[in-house]
Amino acid sequence: MVDGIENVIVSLYVKGMSNSDIEEQIREVYGFDLSTSTISRITDAITDDIVAWQNRPLEPVYLIVWMDGIVFKVRENSKVINKTIYMAVGLRRDGKKKCLAYGWARTNRLHSG
User: What are the two backbone dihedrals, phi and then psi, of residue 83, each rounded to the nearest 5 degrees?
Assistant: First the structure.
């Protein structure tokens, strides 16, 4: 169960939820409490991977770049709101697709993911 809940926490974190939002979501969906410090320890474990991915070198040229988005319902400040995760995917010269960037936005403000 521990691995499963860690995967849920990481999934919610990469979708842009704060640690306190994750804490509330775990309580509502799974019926038990996790402290924000426990959630922070779990999310901190992937921080190095995220920074390495953000700083990786990109190809100088992509044949095509697609933009897409997925809308998620997220609880924020006791309200359910829509958040959109946007993704840029590039087609390399060798035919492989690579995720170039992603981020979330609400209203007209874009936030880096």
Answer: -130, 140
Residues forming beta bridges with residue 91, ordered by sequence position:
64, 97
Write the burial class of residue 24 (CB in 10 Å: 0-12 exposed, 13-18 middle, 19+ buried): middle
List, for residues 67-84, the tens digit of each pLDDT value. Answer: 998 888 877 788 888 888
11-53 pLDDT tens trace: 888 777 888 889 999 998 888 888 989 999 988 888 888 788 8
What single string gives the DSSP state of each residue in the chain?
-HHHHHHHHHHHHHTT--HHHHHHHHHHHHS----HHHHHHHHHTTHHHHHHHHTSPPPS--SEEEEEEEEEEEEETTEEEEEEEEEEEEE-TTS-EEEEEEEEEETTEEEE-
- Please give the single-letter amino acid code of residue 48: D
